[in-house]
Write a structure and sequence with these properties.
Helix 5 packs across helix 6 (166-183). The protein has helices spanning 15-18, 25-31, 75-83, 125-133, 149-159, 166-183, 222-228, 233-236, and strands spanning 3-13, 44-49, 63-67, 85-93, 109-111, 114-122, 190-197, 202-208, 217-219, 243-246, 257-259, 264-268, 274-277. The strands form two sheets. A seven-stranded antiparallel beta sheet has the order 3-2-4-1-10-9-11. A six-stranded antiparallel beta sheet has the order 5-6-7-8-12-13. A hairpin with a 4-residue loop joins strand 7 (190-197) and strand 8. The chain has a single domain (3-277), classed as Glutamine Phosphoribosylpyrophosphate, subunit 1, domain 1, CATH 3.60.20.10. It is an alpha+beta fold. The radius of gyration is 18 Å and the shape is globular.
């Protein structure tokens, strides 16, 4: 599988979370503790929204940087993380579940101002792929550039209305995958933790058809983050609304991280954050 993180809050340099914590995402690329694999070396990617959006009502298209080598040895990633500052970014380290190690298969995936990344898989994906691909809206299909189930899930969610209703679209995507799998006799087809953002809000989903989902955690408060990383001056200046969502914790301070409950999603936004139930529904409505 894979490991990922998503950050929303006061603008910080990417290296503050990618490299500096004791169990940073880069450390997890070699020494993951909670994933299906210890090593996640089949590529990486980061996507970020600029520090200056051009005003509170305007969100520009995010930037994406992806590579096919292991994150721990990529000097370009290290240089970029040292220089890029962002109030909302996502990062992903990949362990392929069978599709090719190539740049177009590395997360995050981008469409217009939207970013999407995924940890998990669709079981027996080659058997289901044709039916799933044919459900993608014809206007979106040309933008699929890779061969992963993760990217196809993104474009199915876009087809089912992601730009208007994120939770509803992801629920319809999951429901459609499960319905398609049932027609082909594939049991428990979907395993996913997903992060998606349009630059203002951040959604994180934890779900699997067998109700045994991969790990996902969110930071409890900025005070806990400061206690976890007292050496980090960026976090001392972070706003009260700063949040981090991770596949596995960046450190071991008790109480600093809470698990996202099974079959739930979290939304991080200005004001009140929320955790709500996630329930797949008919995708081809």
């Amino acid at each position: 599988m894979c490991r990922w993180l998503a950050y929303s809050g006061s603008p910080i340099m990417l290296e503050e979370l990618l490299y500096k914590p004791a169990h940073s995402l880069i450390d997890q690329s070699l020494h993951a503790r909670m994933g299906a694999e210890t090593t996640n070396g089949d590529g990486f990617g980061i996507g970020w929204y600029p520090d200056d959006h051009g005003g509170p009502d305007r969100v520009v298209e995010p930037a994406v940087f992806r590579g096919t080598g292991p994150a721990w040895s990529d000097q370009n990633l290290r240089e970029l993380a040292r220089c890029v500052r962002s109030p909302l970014f996502v990062a992903h380290i990949r362990a392929s579940t069978g599709t090719a190690v190539q740049q177009t298969n590395c997360h995050p995936f981008r469409y217009e101002r939207w970013l999407w990344l995924h940890n998990g898989s669709i079981r027996d994906y080659p058997k289901l792929k044709r039916d799933l691909v044919l459900a993608v809206d014809a206007s979106l299909y040309p933008y699929i550039t890779g061969s992963t189930d993760s990217e196809l899930m993104f474009f199915l969610a876009l087809t089912f209305g992601l730009r208007d209703d994120v939770p509803g679209a992801v629920e319809r995507m999951a429901g459609f995958v499960e319905t398609t799998a049932a027609r082909h006799g594939v049991a428990d087809p979907l395993q996913m933790t997903v992060a998606v953002s349009e630059g203002k809000r951040l959604w994180a989903f934890r779900y699997s058809s067998g109700h045994a989902s991969r790990s996902l955690f969110f930071s409890t408060s900025v005070h806990a983050l400061r206690a976890l990383h007292p050496e980090n001056p960026a976090l001392r200046k972070a706003s009260e609304e700063t949040r981090i969502i991770v596949s596995e914790p960046l450190g071991d301070l008790p109480g600093a991280w809470n698990p996202v409950p099974e079959s739930c999603y979290a939304v991080v936004q200005e004001g009140h954050d929320a955790i709500r139930r996630f329930s797949p529904r008919g995708g081809a409505e």
